[in-house]
Amino acid sequence: MKISEAQYKYAQRRVEELLEVVTDTTLPTSPESMELSIMSTFVEEYEKKHHPIEKLTLAEVIKQGLKAKGMTQKELSQAVGLSTSRISDFTQGKSEPTLATAGEICRVLDIMPEAMLSL
Which residues form a coiled coil (predicted)? Predict the structure, then answer.
């Protein structure tokens, strides 16, 4: 389905308007709920094509986790029992952690394991 920019902007506005009307108690078969579903699909399809979101690499996820926790690679290495150079390999994308190590990194950095496993 080809969606023009004008149609996309209209769908965006309608989604915003409908989000104020449709609640958890609104029936899925109501005209508002159905329109919200259709307009949301239009917005999603347009954005997939024109504004794709690139997946993060495992290295980027670890770097962002370090930044969010305010930790250094050395602190992470001590927390998971690996050398700093090994953590550096992970953050530079030179190698990937084992499943067990990835789980430990997730625990220390408060990263959902699903986020790391989906990469």
Answer: none
